[in-house]
Description:
This protein has helices at 15-24, 41-53, 67-73, 86-97, 100-116, 138-157, and strands at 4-9, 30-34, 58-62, 80-84, 121-127, 160-165, 168-173. By secondary structure, the protein is an alpha/beta fold. The chain has one domain: Rossmann fold. Helix 3 packs parallel to helix 5 (100-116), helix 4 (86-97) packs across helix 5 and helix 4 crosses helix 6 (138-157). The longest helix has 20 residues, at 138-157. The protein is globular. It starts with a strand and ends in a 5-residue tail after the last strand. The mean pLDDT is 90.
Amino acid sequence: MSKTIFILGGARSGKSRFALELGKQQTGTKIYLATAEPRDAEMSTRIKQHQQERSADWETVEEPLHLSETLQALEGRADVILIDCLTLWLSNLMMDKRQSDQILSQEIDPFIDSVAKRNTTIIAVSNEVGQGIVPADPLARRFRDLSGLLHQKYAAIAEDVYFMTAGIPQKIKGNKHE
């Protein structure tokens, strides 16, 4: 049975670990769809840590920009796809496109449509960035705003939504008894 699951939380809240645990509970072929790019030493270290946390039953596909097309290409290849993470994907798009107004119509909306049409369990991880102070510069405010819109759209199609705090998952949408 396919399902769309969304896991939100702050940095180092345990989102990816929890997503892997949920994925482990699923049967069948598993794909970890990584959006991170090793642009600096810190990110390279984080990527290596995430790779070490995954068991051998996860195939890794790296795609920093074209999630909709990648999901289409993976059709029928996996029973579970874990996308980690949506805010890194958005950041990659903003740096690549440089025009956030077009990101919604050209990238986010088609991605949401492609997830909604899948016959695969999709687990997406994303950073909640809108609960802090208002960013000081325009690019950071656009990122915060687009993240919020992306999260609203994904949460609307997800059957289950979790919010992670200090490694503790809080189910905020879906059947509370699962």
